[in-house]
Specification:
heterodimer, A: 372 residues, mainly alpha, two-stranded antiparallel sheet, 12 helices, flat, B: 320 residues, Rossmann fold, 13 helices, 22% strand, globular, binds adenosine-5'-diphosphate, binds magnesium ion
């Protein structure tokens, strides 16, 4: 058989046999290819241009605020939209009187992003703390258990479906279902259990200065607070973190899992080994979740309570960068207020870009640690 | 395939000087026999056993008396395995000699890996796998009801076709089996690590970088690391599934030497598709075909005076 085949191939003259005219290897110009190349390059350029334009517009319109506050903007917690008049006090703290009238001083509007940076970071971190263990668990289930039960397909579909639900739907659910439930059941229950635990008083009481004296008063539990916002965020990022983690865990080579099992690892120990193998990809999944949580606007605005102040209590209303923009941008007068809001938007954009870049590098660039 | 070969130890080997004294016993020089002058018949009539197997029958395997004389560590008894509807192992009956190296040879897809993975029940993970018959490890039934599979696997070591170091340090790789069993004593772990690495002939190369990632080792080093990892808890049987198929010739020779050395301490069951390798490293060889055991005997006998024409023609490369 071998002899036959070689005889045939030797007998049949191949088109490139040395006897024939040599074909030119020079590249010939093809119009279609050139056009398609142009279109593709153009499309790619448009994406880069859009991002550049976005940053540029934000930068120029935020310029007044950048000039005025500089980087101090990031650590200041003042947010006064309007001019304020208040009695002038002297060094001793006495109100200054002149001709029987109280001397007033005007305080200029001031803007600082610390409360919203805090609100964004805190709500995102709590959301991650809730969502990441659940997502990893669900991803392990999808990869290790669901296939044997033949439900991996439907479950995966459900998770992708959850990711596609508009955030407004989550917000409405949070506002009309979750927040009232937290207000009537969860909040009071937690308060009843933890109120008298030493060191946890800050969760339920806040100190305020009223007429010069500091009083401690209970934080009203409204259900629309940091806790509710974080929970809604956690639910919203669950699908994306789960589906990326599932893909990462699916890519763990079978020999790795079998390697641990052959050494006597339990089911759980082999799962830990899988998580360890995919750790950089999983970290990327977490980063993607973080980027999504930090940028989420509609749902969080509806449930976080929108109070531009730093309060460590999970039962206090808070504000995130995105919810601040959603709340104030429509009514902001041109000038410093608007510029400050755009400054916040710029900070948010840069943060989200950073998270995304890190996530991408970890998930795509370093998919397998075997590359070392 | 070359018609004959010489024993690797008759050549100077890289690094062989440090190890040559560790050989347990001199193995008889085994050469793959040149095709004999026996007349070859037509393809259908010359191989009655293969023909019967192809018809779906399970002929009685030819097991040499030399095998039966050995103390048995692993007893495979009328073992059958199905992947869903398709049957991969047909009534395998095969005693494995204690303290010896036993090689499984046969064409690709004949069920060598399946049999190996049946011993430590790695096939349990595959959906639709069903077994019948029994495998006994030192008299304990492997497939009996109530067997703790985790404990069973701790009594066995396994090395895979492709090196599969875990993405952690060399040290942590070696002591993984001890860690997951709950060993915390630093001294015990360090001692076990050194011992296993020495037995795997890797200690001198890595002793200064135990904390470095195992991923940075060469392929051959990684495979020796996997062997160290498999022997750290002193398994009763070491299962090797084509451990050299992903390695270059030099690394292959080192692993083969290593198998010689550790065979003084452990029972080794090795799958190989390389006949010379089986001849070089093993005391006993089993020839499998389409999920059946065909002939099983001392390696020297199987390669030089096989009782079946099928075996003879397979080991000389005329068929299969
Ligand atoms: N996971 C599996 N699912 C279904 N069939 C399998 C699976 N693994 C192996 N097989 C089949 O079982 C037979 C034996 O395979 P294997 O044990 O890997 O052979 P070998 O190691 O001798 O090359 C082959 O026909 C193969 O197709
Ligand atoms: Mg195989």
């Amino acid at each position: 058989m071998t002899t036959d085949a070689s005889a045939i191939s030797a007998a049949a003259p191949s088109p490139n046999a040395s006897g024939g005219p040599a074909r030119s290897l020079r590249r010939s110009f093809r119009f279609g290819d050139a056009m398609l190349g142009l279109v593709c390059r153009g499309s790619a350029a448009i994406i880069a241009l859009m991002l550049g334009a976005l940053v540029l517009v934000l930068l120029t319109s935020a310029m007044p605020a950048i000039k005025q506050f500089g980087l101090g903007f990031l650590v200041s917690s003042e947010w006064r939209v309007n001019e304020l008049e208040r009695p002038l006090k002297d060094a001793a703290g006495q109100v200054v009187m002149e001709d029987g009238e109280i001397v007033m001083e005007t305080i200029k509007p001031a803007f600082g992003a610390l409360p919203v940076i805090y609100g964004t970071a805190m709500s995102s971190l709590i959301a991650l703390a809730i969502a990441v263990p659940l997502s990893f668990g669900a991803a392990l289930f999808l990869v290790r258990v669901a296939p044997t039960l033949r439900i991996a397909g439907p479950l995966s579909f459900l998770i992708e479906f959850l990711a596609a639900i508009p955030s407004l739907a989550y917000g409405i659910w949070g506002l009309f279902v979750l927040a009232p439930f937290l207000q009537s059941h969860v909040g009071p229950a937690i308060k009843a259990t933890l109120e008298n635990v030493p060191g946890l008083r800050w969760m339920f009481y806040e100190s305020v200065t009223i007429a010069g004296t500091v009083v401690e008063r209970p934080i009203p539990i409204t259900g629309r607070d940091m806790l509710c916002g974080s929970l809604v965020l956690a639910i919203m990022i669950l699908p994306i973190v789960t589906s990326v983690s599932r893909d990462v865990l699916k890519a763990v080579p079978r020999t790795q899992i079998e390697g641990t099992l052959a050494l006597g690892a339990t089911w759980w120990q082999s799962c830990v080994a899988m998580l360890r193998y995919g750790r950089s990809g999983l970290f990327g999944a977490v980063m993607l979740g973080l980027a999504r949580a930090a940028g989420e606007t509609m749902a969080i605005t509806m449930v976080i309570g929108n109070n531009n102040q730093i309060n460590p209590s999970p039962f206090a209303p808070a504000q995130t960068m995105a919810s601040l923009l959603a709340n104030e941008f429509a009514e902001a007068s041109e000038g410093l207020h608007q510029a400050s809001l755009l400054y916040v938007a710029l900070v948010l954009l840069v943060m989200s870009l950073l998270f995304n870049v890190i996530a991408r590098r970890l998930v795509v660039g370093k998919a397998s640690p075997a590359g070392h | 395939m070359p018609a004959s070969m010489t024993h690797p130890h008759s050549h100077p080997q890289p690094g062989s000087d440090s190890r040559s004294d560790a050989r347990p016993e001199a193995r008889p020089e085994v050469a793959v026999r040149a095709p004999s002058a026996l007349p070859r018949g037509g393809p259908a009539s010359a191989y009655p056993i293969i023909d019967a197997i192809k018809r779906g029958e399970t002929p009685t395997p030819r097991i040499h008396d030399s095998v039966r004389a050995e103390p048995v560590i692993l007893a495979v008894n009328n073992f059958q395995l199905w992947y869903g509807q398709s049957k991969a192992l047909h009534g395998i009956t095969m005693p494995v000699a204690k303290g010896k190296v036993t090689a499984l040879i046969g064409p690709s897809g004949c069920g060598k890996s399946t049999l190996l993975r049946s011993v430590n029940r790695l096939n349990d993970l595959i959906e639709g796998v069903r077994v019948e018959g029994s495998i006994d490890l030192n008299g304990n039934s492997v497939y009996a009801r109530g067997v703790d599979v985790i404990d069973l696997r701790k009594r066995l070591g396994m090395v895979f076709q492709k090196p599969n170091p875990f993405p952690m340090s060399i040290f942590e790789n070696v002591v993984y089996a001890l860690r997951i069993s709950g060993e915390r004593n630093k001294k015990a772990l360090a001692d076990a690590c050194e011992k296993a690495l020495r037995q795997a002939a890797l200690w001198d190369e890595v002793k200064d970088r135990l904390k470095a990632s195992a991923m940075g080792l060469s392929g051959g080093q990684q495979q020796r690391l996997c062997i160290a990892r498999a022997i750290v808890s002193e398994p009763e049987v070491l299962l090797l599934d084509e451990p050299c198929s992903a390695l270059d010739p030099i690394a292959t020779l080192r692993i083969e030497e290593l198998i010689h050395e550790i065979s003084s301490r452990y029972t080794v069951l090795i799958v190989t598709h390389n006949m010379q390798q089986a001849a070089r490293v093993s005391d006993y060889t089993a020839f499998m075909y389409l999920g059946r055991l065909v002939e099983y005997g001392r390696t020297a006998d199987l390669f030089q005076v096989p009782q079946l024409r099928e075996t003879e023609d397979y080991v000389t490369g005329r068929f299969g």
